[in-house]
Specification:
Layout: E1 3-4, E2 12-19, E3 22-29, E4 40-46, H1 57-66, E5 70-74, H2 92-108, E6 112-122, H3 124-135, E7 142-145, H4 151-159, H5 161-181, E8 186-188, E9 190-191, E10 203-204, H6 206-218, E11 226-228, H7 232-236, E12 252-257, H8 265-274, E13 284-289, H9 296-299, E14 300-301, H10 303-320
Parallel strand pairs: 4-5, 4-6, 6-7, 7-12, 9-10, 12-13
Antiparallel strand pairs: 1-14, 2-3, 3-5, 8-11
Helix pairs in contact: 1-10, 2-3, 4-5
Length: 323
């Protein structure tokens, strides 16, 4: 029986900061009983595709704050309370840019030590943490949890080469038809599976559908049930494996579930293997969490606590302990 975690809204403070295309809305989690201007290490965080700051990340951010870190979560551009038009357009490159602006915001704050800022991502945010660390070298450590690293490869594994090509071809045609009509086409964010009335969805699987239905009703009414169709080509071909060697010398920790049908474990292993080890000037490690599915690492015990423990060991070694 799953034990679901529930966030405490009293633990967070609303913040707004500049983004690449407007203003981003975030939540700041500070350690308890701390002077307002007391500097701490910082952790910028990014979550799953389509998710807003009230989903998944609070369960990690609260625990990081308890351990002495200030954590920042945010709504990506055009989602939640962040600005951006059209609404619910999801582009990996833009979310990575948002993530970079979150890092910059932390480093500019008077209550953060700018020399001790890390990034932590969950699901797609995990892949984006790898991509960001490849280009932002002020980051002191990176942790990717249940990361999305090769989305096209995952879809090909599930649908086959021709099946995935047919699926993407249908997306291409839908985007084209909307452009010809001068409109923006939308598709469901999550469905229980392939459905005749909704043949295209960003996440056509029961596990994702159940998670977002539950959390959107309980915690995140701003979550969008639709994405623009033109979000999908870039999402469906996103690949972080090529960025992994460029993360060095930033220490990289990969945490992944042993069973994950949504984001396959072999791609977590591929990211770890592609990253540079100590012989090439890097530091890397991979840890496996015994899971039955992908979303257990979102908001369920004991999986989140285990991932937090592993993450804090990494951050304490590579971030907090730094002079």
């Amino acid at each position: 029986m799953a034990t679901y975690l529930h966030a405490d809204p009293r633990r967070r403070t609303n913040v707004r900061f500049p983004g690449p295309e407007g203003e981003l809305s975030g939540h700041l989690y500070r350690p308890p009983s701390l002077a307002a201007d007391q500097r701490t290490p910082g952790v910028a965080m990014c979550g799953p595709i389509s998710s807003v700051k009230e989903q998944t990340l609070p369960h990690y951010a609260e625990r990081f704050a308890d351990a002495g870190y200030t954590a920042l979560t945010f709504d990506p551009t055009s989602f939640g309370e962040s600005t951006g038009e059209p609404r619910a357009r999801y582009r990996p490159a833009r979310v990575i840019d948002d993530f970079a602006y979150a890092v910059d915001h932390l480093m500019s704050r008077s209550d953060i030590d700018p020399q001790r800022v890390a990034v932590v991502g969950v699901c797609m945010g995990g892949g984006y943490a790898v991509s960001l660390a490849a280009q932002e070298k002020r980051i002191r450590a990176v942790v990717s949890i249940a990361g999305g690293y090769d989305i096209g490869g995952t879809f090909q594994a599930n649908l086959g080469v021709e099946g995935f090509a047919d699926y993407l071809r249908s997306v291409n045609q839908l985007v084209h038809d909307g452009a010809m009509a001068g409109t923006i086409s939308y598709v469901p964010t999550a469905t229980p599976g392939p459905m005749p009335d909704h043949p295209i969805a960003a996440m056509p699987n029961q596990e994702a559908f159940d998670y977002y239905e539950r959390t959107s009703h309980e915690d995140a009414p701003a979550w969008s049930r639709e994405l623009t169709a033109d979000s999908l080509p870039a999402y469906l071909t996103y690949n972080a494996v090529a960025a992994a060697p460029l993360v060095a010398p930033i220490p990289l920790l990969v945490i992944h579930g042993t069973r994950d049908d949504a984001l396959l474990p072999e791609y977590a292993q591929a990211v770890h293997d592609a990253a540079h080890g100590e012989d090439l000037g890097g530091t890397k490690h991979i840890e496996w969490v015994e899971t039955d599915n992908h979303v257990q690492l979102y908001d369920q015990e004991p999986y989140v606590d285990h991932a937090v423990e592993l993450t804090l060991d990494w951050l304490d070694t590579h971030v907090k302990a730094r002079p």
